[in-house]
Design a protein that fits this description.
With 310 residues, this protein is of the alpha/beta class. The protein folds into two domains: 207 residues, Queuine tRNA-ribosyltransferase-like (TIM Barrel, Alpha-Beta Barrel); 81 residues, no CATH class. The protein is 43% helix and 16% strand. It is built from 14 helices and ten strands. The strands form two sheets. The chain has an eight-stranded parallel β-barrel. It has a two-stranded antiparallel sheet with strand order 9-10. Helix 6 links the parallel strand 4 and strand 5.
């Protein structure tokens, strides 16, 4: 499985991705609109073949700041830069599935091999059939933390329908947008999951003084231990000393987080392989730690709940 680190807008953070040989990085076109360029260190590393980039259109930014990113600008950017990216997410619209479909077709007609985004809070209908029957990779969006229990059952039904459709021949590969280290909750569906992404490697350590360490549990499944740099155990302090990093500075914490997330992903891949070989009950395993289940995490934000899609 491919694990994409979402690039930080802070250039020094993303330098650590190159330094520690992260293989896959997701960048957003919204950064280009805001700063006039995509992180040059990452673009250069991709050009040299040291990592692979996925380009996101910046739809979530557009949801919070309507009109910040435009389809016209995105098309113009792709004309000169599409070859720098191994995967490109279509210009989706969180408010309208019909607009997402229309934008996808425009970009395909431009000659770009973009990934369709299916936001699962919209109910399944026949307009989605072509995207699943093509066998092309697609993205599942809006797999975000819950605000209420009212839509849990419906959303789970929608997720199951999508996963079943993706399994039908020709089988479709799936990218889980924003799932990150909640991947364990999707264990029963990882047979069709090709990739996912996470931004929490830098958000907690940079903004909230978080310290992240990867460990393996008694059952072998990895987890991330979260602390604050003001309240670290001696074990964690010694890890920072050994790595030559300063936990009192956000750069030290972020660099340590890159190492921790890489370890988590490596341990997860190995443990998942073992689980498949020994035919473990992945459904039961995904149901553990109920307070952070995908069943608890799958919902829309309060703002999304007001959206209606015909």
């Amino acid at each position: 499985m491919k694990w994409y680190f979402v690039a930080s807008n802070y250039r020094l953070h993303s330098k650590f991705l190159v330094k520690h040989n992260v293989e896959h990085v997701l960048v957003t076109f919204a950064e280009h609109v805001q700063s006039g360029k995509i992180n040059p260190d990452l673009m250069e590393a991709a050009k040299e073949g040291r990592l692979k980039l996925m380009l996101d259109s910046g739809a979530f930014t557009n949801f919070s700041k309507p009109g910040f990113v435009s389809l016209k600008a995105f098309r113009g950017f792709l004309e000169g830069h599409a070859n720098r990216f191994s995967e490109i997410v279509t210009f989706d619209d969180l408010r309208s599935r019909s607009k997402t479909i229309k934008n996808y077709r425009v970009l395909k007609n431009d000659g770009h091999d973009v990934l369709f985004v299916d936001h699962i809070y919209f109910r399944w209908n026949d307009s989605l059939q072509p995207f699943y029957k093509s066998g092309n990779k697609l993205c599942f969006g809006s797999l975000v933390k819950k605000t209420s229990d009212s839509q849990t059952h419906t959303l789970l039904e929608q997720l199951e329908k999508r996963m079943d459709a993706a399994r039908e021949k020709p089988k479709s590969k799936v990218h889980l947008l924003g799932v990150g280290t909640r991947v364990k909750k999707f264990l029963p569906h990882l047979d069709v999951v090709d990739s996912l992404d996470t931004s929490s490697w830098f958000t907690g350590p940079a903004r909230f003084g978080g310290v992240v360490i990867a460990k393996a549990g008694e059952d072998g499944w990895p987890f991330l231990q979260h602390d604050n740099y003001r309240h670290m155990t001696e074990e964690v302090r010694s890890m920072f000393r050994k790595a030559g990093l300063d936990p009192n500075h956000h750069l030290g914490r972020v660099e340590m987080a890159v190492k921790a997330f890489k370890k988590f992903f490596r341990l997860f891949d190995a443990r998942y392989k073992k689980a498949i070989e020994s035919k473990e009950d992945l459904v039961e395993k995904s149901m553990e730690d109920d307070d952070s289940l995908v069943q608890k995490a799958l919902t829309v934000t309060d703002a999304m709940e007001a959206i209606e899609e015909s």
